[in-house]
Amino acid sequence: MTGTLTDGTPLPEPPRTLPPDPHGMLLAYLDHYRDTVLRKLDGLDEAELRHSRLPSGWSPLELLRHLACVERRWLRWGFLAEPVEDPWADRDADGRWHVPDGTTPAEVVEHFRAECARSREIASSAALTDRAALGGRFTTEEKAPTLAWILFHLLQEYARHAGHLDIVRELADGAVGE
Length: 178
Description:
Layout: H1 22-41, H2 46-50, H3 60-79, H4 105-124, H5 147-173
Helix pairs in contact: 1-4, 1-5, 3-4, 3-5
């Protein structure tokens, strides 16, 4: 994968040997996928953002809110052990993703961007080998993952959901590609 983020920042080449800066590479690829998710939603009207085209029933807006909460769960509550109100806020009583009534698409996008910015700060200020603090999501040392593990987990989560949005976007208006 090569290319640039929407701000013109080049993505690193995929590693052919050990990368010189694995930390920077992980952060760059996460930003690439965060940007990809937003680009997949760009151009969809509000009705399409709130509508599900899939048997599982989730909407693109619900997926974006889910990803914002994933960022918060893994880096703020998980890695830093910050107390966060309702870490599972993306789920309703049945465990399905939801967007609270009255929440606009712009508010969901802003929430997503704010969580990503905070995650970027956290991930940039720690070493890949640092373990998650105890007291938030993790209560024992044995269960506390390293920052590298968390970032790889987030990367796979984004790659998976970007692929889901590829399908939704193609079904919605025929748009394909990155």
